[in-house]
Amino acid sequence: MNKKKKGVTLLEVGVSLFIITLTLSIGSVSYRYYKDYETLVIEKEFLNHMYSFINYSRKTCISEEKPGEIINDKEIKSITFRMIDKNGKEIVQSLEIPDKIIFLKEASLKINSKGELNSTSIEWKGIETNNIYKITISVGINTMRVYINGKQEEW
C-alpha cells in the first residue's frame, strides 16, 4: 500500500513566504515613493499657481491703471488679490493654499498701477518635505525669480 502524503514541505513554505515578503516590500517602497512624489507635485503645482497669480494681479493693475494688493490670509488659508477698477467695482481673486503648505511670514504685496510691487519676496514651506520656496520680485521690473531651498530654478 502506497500512502500519499498530505501537506506541504518546509521548502515550499519557505519559497511561498519569500515570494510574499518580496512582493510586500516592493509594494511598501513604491507606496512610500508615491506619497513623497505626490507631496512634491502639490508643492510645485502651488509654486506655479502662485507665480501665475502674481502675474495675473500685476497685469490686472496695469490694464485697469489702478493699484491693488495681494494678501495672505492664514485664517481662511488663501491668497487674495484685491483692487478697485475704473468703475469703482471691487475685483477680488483668491488662490487656495493647500494643507501641505505653510507661509513663513505674513505676505502683503502692494502693486501700483504700473504693475510694480513694493515687496521683494514671498516665501513658504512644504510641511512634509521641508522644502522652502521663494519667489523674488525685482521691484519696478517685470522679473521674478524662483528659488527652491536657496537654489535658483528656471521657471
Automatic annotation (TrEMBL):
Key words, A-Z: Membrane, Transmembrane, Transmembrane helix
Transmembrane segments: 7-34
Keyword presence, Transmembrane: yes
Protein name stated in the entry: Prepilin-type N-terminal cleavage/methylation domain-containing protein
